[in-house]
Design a protein that fits this description.
The complex is a heterodimer of chains A (456) and B (311). With 456 residues, chain A is an alpha/beta fold. Chain A contains 21 helices and 8 strands. The longest helix of chain A is centred in the C-terminal third of the chain and has 24 residues, at 410-433. Chain A is elongated and about 90 Å long. Classes of the chains: A alpha/beta (456), B alpha/beta (311). Chains A and B meet through helix 2, helix 6 and helix 9 of A and helix 3, helix 7 and helix 10 of B.
Chain lengths: 456, 311
């Protein structure tokens, strides 16, 4: 959602004043930490989890050298991101396979979390792995829940075990496991009725089901849109049943999904899958780094930052800064900037890594931008060194020569020169106002209809 | 009318203990109103899903009033907060739009899994109790067995039902239902729709289309567009309310699953941003577990008043 601007942007605002400081002081960090905290709370990460997490961030951020990292905001985001990914379980985790089949998986959770749909998705997933799944309709409470699973089973052409709605769920799972043993199903997936974690009677029922079925995996299905209560729900289910993992559903919307972090932090149970849509194939493995970016609302900015850091030569960057300051930025530098950008990736690639929807409008005419880039390169390469260093000497005949040399028209050459002049002016403004505010840069460029996002 | 407060208090038990029990504790142990006090208030409100933005605004108002009126005792702050929450939620109840030429057409929308079909069952029963004839339109033609689920509720509530096959055009179901209601002299038509995430443009266009179809058939229809919000939802509910509001003319909110577990603070966040009244709350899975929302009783229940006996 565009409603939230990215954390990076907010931190850049917070760090604006830091120019010229050597080391992040406790006070500087406090301001940044405040923004991080708000971002997490807006994303529905549990208040207590946030508190603890923030403590860690503070510790790591104080004393960081500002100058070493040209941009303290990104440095802090990096720390936050690393810590969060770590907290969410580092690498992805897989499902248990029983020594002696069938492997029994139970899906549990609140009403409306998406257990029935997820059960069908899991069955499909196992079939694609070459296993023989048996779906079990053990939700005897919600009207038509059994039919729902049966109907999904039909769509997938997979068997559904049901004993109607009049039989105790405990007996249903018992019957299902027997059937699986007899008929050689190696993966039993039990759909259970949604229930409140505070309903002791129904929680007790789940416990008996689990014991009867000797379930190998008890997975809590959690709606990614859940608020602060996610922690209590997960705690209660975990305490009663001993969860082995979590499946996060409805992540195809615009929720930040802070519930993920909360649930993992409190129960320690890994998130094993995420539901990304209503279609039965929309079940994906969970990647902590992606969830981190999502919670922080920053797309895959980190990947981008890392790439940029590895590509951009620090010395050259310093040199460039000096040139801008002294108004010596010329077409040669301009070309170099373009080439540096290309080495990071295609424009489209770069934009893909930016926070999704918020950036969409701004880059509607993206394809054109890419083409312009090639053209611009050709034009500059058709100039002599002298011309590149002193664009002022370009007269009519020179322009004509450049145009024919680069396969463009004189108008194109003129347009480039105009853009270059604008860019130069812009960079000087940037340099004099603030150093790290790329957010500001892109805004200004948009206003001036400037097509080349440049590196600072 | 029997006071709903005790039942609401019961339903909101968790909210009370979680949200305002904590506030009571804070007030009892705080000698003075200082930064720490405000910080803890913030924590309590955010933990109840009131949201960063609304909490910040709320507390700014509170601070201002505390300064202006030179309030010194923490206990008085509680009243100020209560008053501010009451202001956000609006006053009293908001009646269903039932007056006028029948059939009255109600459209029910929301994201997946919030309890649309269940709420419709309860709403049908509620209207039947008031002596209305009710016809349900099985407009969730997408989810497996959603039609069967609504059929079961229609049996329980004693309402008629119009249905097509799974996969049929939901707007066509709505059209047929409204036509049938006209010829059968039905008082209220309630149209169920498939759950959809508010960010799916094509699905939101589909729900706009249903609204247009009934608009053409009955004057002033739909007379109510009810957006169901799951009370356990976090800040995404604000986005839901906003984007559904853009696609259809939402006239009221129903807060579902407010029994025991949910905190319902999200309703404060949603109301803080959008001027749509809450009309009902769902407090259980039984057919009678739908209550008219009364903001004053809600606030009372939220703060645990009149409920000390039932603890």
């Amino acid at each position: 959602m565009a409603a939230f601007s990215s954390l990076t942007e907010k931190l850049q605002q917070a760090f604006k004043k830091l120019r010229g400081k050597g080391i992040l002081s406790e006070k500087d960090v406090s301001e940044a930490v405040r923004e991080v905290r708000l971002a997490l709370l807006e994303a529905d990460v549990n208040y207590k989890v946030v508190k603890e997490f923030i403590g860690k961030i503070r510790e790591r951020a104080v004393g960081q050298e500002v100058m070493k990292s040209l941009t303290p905001a990104q440095q802090v985001v990096k720390i936050v991101s690393e810590e969060m990914t770590e907290l969410m379980g580092g690498a992805k985790s897989s499902l248990v396979v029983a020594d002696k089949p069938p492997t029994v998986i139970m899906l549990v959770g609140l009403q409306g979390a998406g257990k029935t749909t997820t059960a069908a998705k899991l069955a499909r997933y196992f079939r694609n792995l070459g296993r023989r799944p048996l779906l079990v309709a053990a939700d005897v409470y919600r009207p038509a829940a059994v039919q729902q699973l049966q109907s999904l089973g039909e769509k997938l052409k997979l068997p559904v075990f049901s004993m109607g709605e009049k039989v105790e769920p405990v007996n249903i799972v018992q019957g299902a496991v027997k059937r699986a043993q007899k008929e050689g199903y190696d993966q039993v997936i039990v759909d259970t009725a949604g229930r409140l974690h505070i309903n002791e009677q129904l929680m007790e029922e789940l416990k008996r089901m689990k014991e009867t079925a000797e379930a190998h995996e008890t997975l809590l299905v959690v709606d990614a849109m859940t608020g602060q209560d996610a922690v209590k729900v997960a705690e209660a289910f975990h305490e009663k049943l001993g969860l082995t993992g979590v499946i996060l559903t409805k992540l195809d919307g615009d929720t930040r999904g802070g519930a993920a972090l909360s649930v993992k932090a409190v129960t320690g149970c890994p998130i094993k899958f995420i539901g990304m849509g209503e279609k039965l194939e929309a079940l994906e493995p969970f990647y902590p780094e992606r969830m981190t970016s999502r919670i922080l609302g920053m797309g895959d900015v980190l990947t981008l930052i890392e790439k940029a850091q590895s590509q951009v030569d620090k010395d050259k960057a310093k040199d460039l800064e000096r040139k801008i300051r002294e108004n010596q930025f010329n077409l040669e530098d301009f070309l170099e900037q373009l080439q540096q950008m290309k080495s990071v990736g295609s424009l489209e690639n770069i934009l893909e890594m930016l926070p999704g929807n918020a950036m969409g409008k701004q880059f509607k005419n993206l394809k054109i931008g890419e083409k312009d880039l090639i053209k611009t390169e050709a034009i500059i390469q058709s100039m002599t060194i002298q011309e590149r260093n002193n664009p002022e000497i370009l007269n009519g005949s020179r322009k004509k020569r450049i145009a024919s040399g680069s396969g463009t028209r004189v108008q194109d050459v003129n347009r480039l020169l105009k853009q270059f002049a604008q860019a130069r002016q812009l960079m000087r403004q940037m340099e004099s106002s603030s150093r790290g505010a790329t957010g500001k840069l892109s805004k200004k460029m948009k206003n001036k209809r400037f097509h080349f996002p440049l590196f600072r | 009318m029997v006071s709903l407060v005790p039942r609401l208090v019961e339903g909101l038990a968790k909210t009370r203990k979680g949200l305002l029990g904590k506030m009571g504790d804070l007030i009892n142990r705080s000698g003075k109103i200082d930064e720490e006090f405000y910080e803890e208030l913030e924590e309590i409100l955010i933990s109840a899903d009131v949201g960063v933005k609304t909490t910040t605004e709320l507390l700014e108002n509170v601070r201002e009033e505390v300064l202006k009126k030179r309030v010194k005792e923490p206990a008085k702050v509680l009243d100020i907060i209560k008053k501010n929450i009451q202001e956000i939620l609006g006053e009293g109840t908001s009646a269903l739009n039932l007056e006028g030429v029948p059939p009255r057409v109600f459209l029910v929308v929301g994201v997946n899994g919030v309890g649309k079909t269940t709420t419709i069952g309860k709403l049908a029963y509620f209207l039947k109790q008031k002596g209305k004839t009710v016809l349900l339109a099985a407009g969730d033609t997408f989810r497996a067995a959603a039609i069967e689920q609504l059929e079961e509720w229609s049996r329980r509530a004693g309402a008629q039902i119009i249905k097509h096959q799974e996969g049929a055009d939901a707007a066509a179901v709505a059209f047929d239902a409204v036509r049938a209601a006209k010829s059968r002299m039905i008082d209220v038509v309630i149209i169920d729709t498939a759950g959809r995430l508010q960010t799916k443009k094509n699905l939101m266009a589909e729900v706009s289309k249903i609204q247009r179809v009934v608009e053409k058939e009955v004057q002033g229809a739909p007379h109510e567009v009810l957006l169901i919000l799951d009370a356990t939802t976090g800040q995404n509910a604000v986005s839901q309310a906003r984007l559904f509001g853009e696609a259809v003319n939402v006239t009221g909110l129903v807060l579902s699953k407010l029994d025991g577990t949910a905190k319902g603070g999200i309703v404060i966040a949603v109301r803080g941003e959008l001027n749509v009244p809450v009309k009902f709350i769902g407090i259980g899975e039984q057919i009678g577990d739908l209550r008219v929302f009364n903001s004053e009783e809600f606030v009372k229940a939220l703060f645990g008043e009149e409920g000390s006996g039932s603890r």
